[in-house]
Amino acid sequence: MTTLPPQQDQLRNPLRFFSELLDQPAWVAGWVFALMVINMASLAFWSEPLAKLILVVFMLSAMLMMGLYAVFGFARILGLGHVFWIPLLGYLIIQLQQIEGLFAGYLLVLSLAIGVSLLFDIRDVWIYLSSKRAQH
Length: 136
Fold this sequence. Notes:
mainly alpha, 68% helix, 0% strand, elongated
């Protein structure tokens, strides 16, 4: 049986994530929105199997993010929600060498966005875990 963090006795409604997102600095909300749009743009290339994989990974990440939010709230630990992007980014980089045209351009933009996001995520999770270790 899992237990919730001591300061919390019930889960948050995951839909409140978006209202709390709007309470963040404008650049944070803008960045999250841009990531959503870039990932959802995979629908424009739906005939490509890789586009389907991108959407599936995006949806899995979103579900994990909502689960983390329900437990921890809007905290730096939410960076773990993008853990599936790590293998996806490696795969995208390999595939980019074999793809041309507009889809290749999309994959390059997506790869750059995921890479930047992962840098933020790694930093955020590190800070979160370091602060938890310092409390104990």
